[in-house]
Design brief:
This protein folds into three domains: 182 residues, MFS general substrate transporter like domains (Growth Hormone, Chain: A, Up-down Bundle); 56 residues; 209 residues, Growth Hormone, Chain: A (Up-down Bundle). Helices cover 83% and strands 0% of the residues. It has 18 helices and no strands. It is globular and about 65 Å long. The N and C termini lie close together (11 Å).
């Protein structure tokens, strides 16, 4: 294809832009939700009188757990009841629970409202992605739409850290939730006016045993990872929780092979493009998420940045994510999915590994450059991974595939936990050198590990992905 042909094929049209704006607005909203509340947690604790830091952490965890646990279920439900219908219901619920979260008078009600937001986000995620893949046919238009979607998801996280600091400093933490409600209203208007229900709805019964096993297993997995650092990785509760996750997910895979209409058809999991796409997603989300968390620690605990300064320092990563989302379709169209994945993981790995050079004082330019490289590579790898997972599938499987494509976002928490453990272990070994030096040494070790894992993923993808999927360098 010539460059002009690619540009013409990738044009979305006026209605396509409105559809994309609506669906990506929902993606941006859910990404914003996870980060904006983190910055506001201290003020929330003081205002509502949370008993402890552990109790306060449930404001974040209560949203994350149901989203991860229910994603596969709603991936199938959106194929059964209609993607637009589930999307509209999810956005309406998210808006209502955001409004409730902004008005609650007590800690318990806030945690309950956050859990409601998590359920709604689990409805929105696969429905929005399935609607996107249905609205834009496979090829340059879909890849461009996925690029915008991936860029806005990353931008939502970055905007949340900045917006959370600005809002809690200038107004009140409640406005973080009211802002989400306002965005929800705008997305809902778009969903009702420009988004259409695609054909191909599946008329069949729901796999209830599969839904229970998958939901329980993912809940236990994410809960065990989220609480393992605080409870201790070798502690009884953590080991029991992670063992339960392994048993439930193993039982889920066994049940799916026997169920006449499985929640997640085993043939999808056996597709090399799906398996490899999810593996790439776990690597890029795990290493980028873990490095971003540790970079925040570096800025605040080593460099002495305020939360607002920390959020502003992530602008480099956010801008790079937007650029990557813009260029992803061109690179994939010209060089193919495998090359895009390898390039993305390589740039992410190199940028993250270079963070080992971050000093104890100054170094803002290096910080912006390395975090920007990490963000650019991450979004490029994510877009290519999602396109890999959803490529070549019939319309009836797009909802399930959309749910699978978003699971690495949560399973990637394994990377966050692993890198945090590496940093803590190295800092402990360097404790005799002083607190600041030990903290910096631990962070450097974790950054180097994150870079090495991403680069190893790039090598594995380059060697094995093309061989097992049959994808050509420029397809």
């Amino acid at each position: 294809m010539t460059a002009e042909t690619l540009r013409n094929a990738a044009r979305l049209g006026s209605r396509g832009r409105l559809v994309l704006f609506t669906l990506c607005g929902a993606t941006f909203m859910t990404g914003l939700d996870y980060s904006i509340i983190t910055v506001a947690l201290p003020e929330i604790g003081r205002d509502l009188g949370f008993a402890s830091a552990a109790a306060l952490q449930w404001v974040a965890t209560a949203c994350l757990l149901p989203t991860a646990a229910l994603m596969p279920l709603f991936g199938r439900v959106c194929d059964l009841v209609g993607r637009r219908r589930l999307f509209v219901a999810g956005v309406a619920l998210f808006t209502a629970f955001s409004l409730l979260a902004g008005l609650v008078p007590s800690p318990g009600l806030l945690v309950a409202a956050r859990a409601g937001q998590g359920v709604a986000a689990a409805m929105i995620g696969p429905a929005a992605l399935a609607l996107l893949t249905s609205a834009f046919p496979e090829g340059p238009r879909r890849t461009r739409a996925l690029g915008v979607n991936g860029a806005l998801l990353s931008l939502g996280f970055v905007a949340g850290t900045i917006g959370g600091g600005l809002i809690t400093s200038g107004l009140n933490w409640r406005w973080t939730m009211l802002l989400l409600a306002l965005i929800g209203v705008l997305v809902l208007l778009g969903a009702l006016t420009v988004v259409r229900e695609p054909g191909g709805r599946t008329r069949t019964r729901l796999d209830v045993p599969g839904a229970l096993l998958a939901g329980g297993g993912l809940f236990a997995l994410v809960y065990g990872i989220s609480t393992g650092d605080q409870a201790g990785w070798a502690s009884g509760p953590t080991l029991v929780t992670l063992s339960a996750a392994a048993l439930l997910l193993g039982a889920f895979l066994a049940v799916e092979t026997r169920h006449p209409v499985p929640l997640v058809p085993p043939r999808l999991l056996r597709r090399p493009s799906v398996a490899w796409g999810m593996a790439v997603g776990v690597v890029t989300f795990g290493m980028c998420g873990g490095a971003t968390l540790l970079l925040s620690i570096h800025m605040q605990d080593v460099l002495g940045f305020t939360p607002l300064q920390t959020g502003l320092a992530f602008l480099g990563e956010g801008v790079a994510a937007l650029v990557a989302g813009t260029l992803a379709a061109r690179l994939i169209g010209a060089r193919g999915l495998v090359t895009a994945i390898v390039t993305g993981l390589t740039v992410q790995g190199a940028g993250t590994a270079a963070m080992v050079l971050l000093p104890a004082e100054g170094g803002l330019g290096l910080l912006l450059a390395t975090s920007g490289a990490m963000g650019f590579g991450h979004v490029l790898a994510v877009v290519a991974a999602v396109a890999t997972i959803t490529s070549g599938l019939p319309e009836a499987d797009q909802g399930v595939a959309a749910g699978l494509a978003q699971l690495p976002t949560f399973i990637g928490a394994i990377g966050v936990a692993g890198l945090s453990a590496v940093a803590a272990a190295r800092s402990g070994a360097l404790a005799v050198t002083g607190v600041a030096e030990a903290t910096l040494g631990g962070l450097h070790s974790a950054f180097l590990m994150a870079g090495a894992v991403a680069l190893a993923g790039a090598v594995a993808a380059g060697v094995l992905l093309r061989r097992t999927t049959g994808f050509s360098p420029a397809a």
